[in-house]
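look at this one:
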Amino acid sequence: MVKRTRAFTLIELLVVIAIIAILAAILFPVFAQAREKARAIACLSNCRQIGLALSMYLQDWDEKFPQEHPTTSNPVVDDSQGQLETIDYGSPFDKILPYVSGHDSNKVGIYICPSDPDPHGQSLLDANGNCKNTDPPAPPPGALTSYVLNAYYLFGATLAQLPDPSRSIYISERRDTFCDVHYHPWLGEILAPNGPNDPINPIAIAYNRHNGGSNFVYADGHAKWHRFEDTIRPFEGHELYGEHQAF
């Protein structure tokens, strides 16, 4: 007697396929979120290493932040039109390279966020290394990376000037359309609303790169993930730009 095996019917196959499709639709977003969470953690680890390097630099340089432009105690007023920036001492990212065992900002892994689609700003630069969106075209003051410095600290600022360094942002994540190594809170580069329906629109900062927020390095060396809107809330002593205001 020949033993007959029962085959799947077409309906049963379609049901199995439908179940697999439903499970895939449920799980793929979960996998994507998990992958982005891992990238965000790697980026935060970079920020913590940069913060540690900054702390070591401050210890060696009498608590003076890496300087890029001529000294002023009030950059908001004295550099309101960028007039102090024609004299350039070089990117602070390069100045802390010895503390991260590096020699080239373009090649140091901690300066690259895994979620940044263009960490070196290649789409922003022309063949001569100039920013395409400047008139006339000019090069950035240093190699573009995934991170951007708060310009408050570039004019000879010291740790003693800061009343609340644990709430003062030193480094933010660079928006991949921003062609510079630092941003100016007083020149409107942290907030440029498109209108009442789009009030959060920073020019310089990748404000929602990691699950609705991004990573920041503070002047005391610690790093933390924040929603951007939390960082711009004014508080005592920082009435203008929130945590982006150093003093």
